[in-house]
Amino acid sequence: MASTSDLKRVTPGASKVPEPGARRRGLHTWLTPLLDGFLSEHLRKAPSTELHRHRMLIGSCLFALTCSVLYLLLVPFTPAEVSTLIAGVCYLGTLLLARKARSLALPAAFLCVCAAVGYVVSIFLSAHPEGGLHATSMLIPSFAAYLAGRRLSFLITCFLAVSIGIAHPLFRAQLSTYSSQVTPQEFMVMHGSAAVALLGAWVLSMLHSISRDSAQEALERTLKTLRESEGKLLSLIESTDDLVCSLDTEKRVITANAAMRRLYLEIQGQELIPGQPFILPNTPELQEHWYALFDKTLAGERSRLEVEQAQGERNLVLDVSLSPILGTEGKVTGLTLFSRDITARKVAETRLAEMHRSLVDVSRYAGMAEVATGVLHNVGNTLNSVNISAGLLSDRLRHSRVPGLRKAANLLHEHASDAGTFLTTDPRGQQLPGYLLALSEELEKERESMRKEVGSLTASVEHIKSIVSMQQQYARAAGVVERLPVPQLIEEALRLHAGSFERKGIHIVREYDPVPSILVDRHNLLQILINLLSNAQHALMESNAPDKTLSIRIRLSTGGDQLIIEFSDNGVGIAPENLARLFSQGFTTKKTGHGFGLHISALAATKMSGRLTCTSAGLGRGATFTLELPLEGPNEQQESQTQT
Q1: Is the pTM of this model over 0.85?
Q2: Fewest CB within 10 angstroms: 230, 256, 592, 634, which?
Q3: For the segment 125-164, what is each residue's pLDDT rounded down to a tens digit?
Q4: Cα gap 442→368, rounded to integer Å
């Protein structure tokens, strides 16, 4: 993963000033191979921390060997220079050992022992009595602690301390070769202090070494944990089909998973390489749009959006999330881009919306058919009454006494000239008054009977007219929300089934609490009520209960903001395993059912921000359907989501 420092741009035309790190890298390019050339193959393959010690050993030998050669060349030969010559040979021996060794222990021990012995020999042979106070003595304990380990370095330091603090002063006292400016007591104190300083140098070096080793172990543990976490994270990112990418503060790519690289290659036609701008300069419109979003994210604002991207012959829909990357101090150091291909989901949502619209149309047609069936059934029943009344009227007119009246009138007309003689002397005339009286009574009875039949016929015709008028109200366009009294709507729905309920012996129990009118879509509510009444009728007709009863209750909820309508019957009931699927599309327990009624009713209730539920104690124990509706009409947000 490229770091931000590695991805910094170089401004064209700007003067390039070498960085300090560049000089170090230049030195490293020739010094490291030189030092590694004196190491064996096994030592060169050591871990980085051990390799640094190996190189330090070689570098120290080369430096000391160079100093020894220069000293021998520049200083006139004295007996003390024998130790320098011996030390040079020891340095060469150390280099040879390092070239063949499989571990650092032997070369490091050889070098440190030779350095300590050579130094002690040189101060004993030197003509200057203060040779034990040379700064070189402080380097040997520190160097031994770094290269040779605790035990050997401690022994070497003790050897130096005893040699400088005790043996050398005694040696000088025996020879009486003190400096003219230093007394024997001062000489002893100076070399004793030097011995103590050597031991202190070793203690400090060991503390530093222990601290360094502890820090190194902690660093290695941290790096191991980091590598494991990085491996898990990379495995997680690479295993997902989501698009993952991270950018620095200059909108350049830091890293991207395989899914992002594949899509980028398909869309842009080139590889997504760390360090390059995420949006190529040859697409300024895209660059302007995306960089505005990136700037918001780099300012600390999270954002989420849907993006449509053309990919070949199809449009790709992506759900994109942009999140800032926060550093240790809470400063934004970059951003992450997570994206998911939701094309299939969008297509499915579109198809689902189309299916929903189709289902609504089917439900509307089914509701219309249900209403039409009820209307035709009731009209048919009323037409039976009309036919009966018309038949009775026709029969009574056919057997009417009106022809007898005509005969009597014709008889009187024939004897108009001698009407008095005819009525008093003629036998037929003598019977005519009684006949007319009896005929008038019969005609009066006929008139009264026909008046009743005409009244019944008129009532039947009015009933048909009211049914047709009610059907015209049901046929109005749906979607209009108006304030309506629910009891009145229930009674209108009951009138469509009244004939069936009465003929089949179904008793209706009404329990209407005083409730206010509600804002509701008449078409949707009537569709639900008619479906529930039809469902209750079928349940009761299939039941063997002698007293078939349908109870309709209207009440307000506890909070007073919901209207509750309950339809309870003592019909066949519902099995517990069918309750969960009762409102599913296509599910029905009727032999001739289509499985639309309850499903559409539940959808219509949801559309009105209400809900339709059912409870049943089991088969043969009836069922209760409960419709809950808000008093103040459907929630606009929920209604828009349902339509969508």
Answers
A1: no
A2: 592
A3: 777 766 666 777 788 888 888 888 888 888 988 988 888 8
A4: 50
187: its two tokens: 């000489």
Q: What is the pLDDT of residues 278-324, one digit of tens each?
A: 887 777 777 888 888 888 899 888 988 888 877 666 778 888 899 99
Element of type H or E holding 284: helix 284-298
> Tens digit of pLDDT for each residue in 313-368?
677 888 889 999 888 778 888 999 888 888 888 888 888 878 877 777 776 676 66
Contacts of 198 (CB under 8 A, 6+ apart): 137, 138, 140, 141, 157, 160, 161, 164, 165
Question: How is 364-414 classified by DSSP, letter by letter?
Answer: HHHHHHHHHHHHHHHHHHHHHHHHHHHHHHHHHHHT-SHHHHHHHHHHHHH
Q: What DSSP letter does each residue of 64-113 carry, written as one string?
A: HHHHHHHHHHHSPP-TTHHHHHHHHHHHHHHHHHHHH-SSSHHHHHHHHH
Q: Tell me phi and psi for residue 325, to 5 degrees.
A: -100, 120
- For residue 385, CA distances in Å to 446, 449, 469, 500 come to 20, 16, 19, 15
Distance CA 626, CA 552 (A): 10
Residue 311 contacts residue 266 (beta carbons within 8 Å)? yes
Angle at 20 between CA 14 and CA 24, to 5 degrees: 125
Determine contact, residues 486/517, Cβ cutoff 8 Å. yes
Which are the contacts of 112, defined by CB distance < 8 A and separation ≥ 6?
140, 143, 144, 147, 148, 152, 153, 156
